[in-house]
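Lecture 7 notes: from sequence to structure.

We start with a single chain of 281 residues. Read the sequence below before looking at the structure.
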Amino acid sequence: MTIAITGATGQLGRLVVDRLKTKVPVADIAALVRSPAKAADLGIPVRPADYAKPATLAAAVSGVDTLLLISSSEVGQRSAQHRNVIDAAKQAKVKRIVYTSLLHADTSPLSLAEEHRDTERVLKASGLPFTILRNGWYTENYTGSAKGAVAAGAFIGSAGDGRIASAPRADYAEAAVAVLTSQGHEGKTYELAGDEAYTLVELAAEISCQTGKEIPYKNLPEADYAAALVGIGLPEWLAQALAGWDVGASRGALFDDGRQLSRLIGRDTTPLRDIVAAALK
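Now the structure, written as tokens:
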């Protein structure tokens, strides 16, 4: 059986590969990547594959039994790119696709959701057996700002009192591997989120506790938060997107209490304090 992973050199993809190598023979795993040279350290067979170049995808998915389609990082181009992969998988008669979508993609107000909804529709219409992993927010999306918040003396955002049920990438990678290497997941959609929901006020309090410094959370209007992100060097489009996603969080877009992630991985999801500690090292 060959398990192939798209985007295998990305942050999530590398974690999936590392864990998968402990579960199945290396020869049975394939990394599908745009830049094969960047995958040399993965220690598994590598196949050139570019989401945007259908000609590369047919050979990449040939002989693949299970394909993990990790969503493209190119926001705005994902629908077409994912369709290319699914079409190639259908032509190659791939036996199953596992797709990393977005938490509550069918109802989410986040701007990210529409491309995931499009992909889910294409996947379901393909006739291929599938499993959809609707990944919630990565805790690192917030804790990555922890050191900057300490330096600035405050943690800023636009999430208000919204509760965020995030988990680290490693937990989502573990869930993906559990689905890739076991049966009974065909046709299922999993809403994956952390067991422990928190507000950004509580995140700031945890940073304060671990550093011994008073780091308050300052909630900003969406436009002000976007401007602050531009001020620290982010592109305007990304700053506006991040601010918009925070506003979505304030309205519950990043909350889920179904605990499907912890059931898939067979343990509690990693606590916020552990990810904060890692970020502050």
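The CA atoms of residues 66 and 214 lie 49 Å apart. Keep this in mind for problem set 3.
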